[in-house]
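Lab notebook, bench 4. The sequencing result for the construct came back, and we need a structural model before the next group meeting so we can plan mutations. Quick request posted to the team channel:

Model the 3D structure of this chain.
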Amino acid sequence: MPVTTCVFDAYGTLFDVAAAARVLAEQPGQDELARVWPKLAADWRMKQLQYTWLRAVTGDHTTFWEVTKDGLDWAMEASGLSDPVLRETLLALYWELPAYPEVPRMLASLKAHGMTTAILSNGSPEMLQGAVDFAGVGEWLDAVLSVEDVGIFKPAKVVYDMVGKRFGTSPDQVLFVSSNGWDAAAAAAYGFRTAWVNRAGEPMDRLPARPAHVLDDLTGIPELAGGL
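Done. Here's the predicted structure in token form:
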């Protein structure tokens, strides 16, 4: 069956998760952060994801905002930073992550071609709404789906079930797009058509399933979806 619905991961896929640290590091008086912000941003994201996986395995679910704060605390300690004002500023900026440059035109093109579009994210509803509003992309999204509705993080199968329940689609009618290789692989195993946005040029994850398509950014998504 042809693809009718394009579903996107949020953080790192539509929204630039490194922007909070990068933007603050560019401000006057942030010399200490400027020296370490790439490591801080990478560690923050790594621990944020690791904590979602561990909590999914152990059943100790919490909000994505809590694991975001926990991940930042770990990353700051790893970089030798302990300034509480810096911590609060970075957390505030996480609610104002910009979309990648190609995102608005890409989403608008999908809608112009009659596609249903949605976010499916580990993010809490409030965080996701904040990101969507700040980036100004809400007009091109039919739904923003959060794992908070099922109480477990990706890649749990019940998270991917949310798409069919919301839109009445079968898995092969969905193109699922993520910048996380593990997420795209899990979605492929679930039965979605999949595209991995591999912005960093990373190796393919060694998992039971693999994403069918690998892209450098989101520019080609409308053409890909239209051809499936």
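The CA atoms of residues 76 and 82 lie 7 Å apart.
Will bring this to the meeting.
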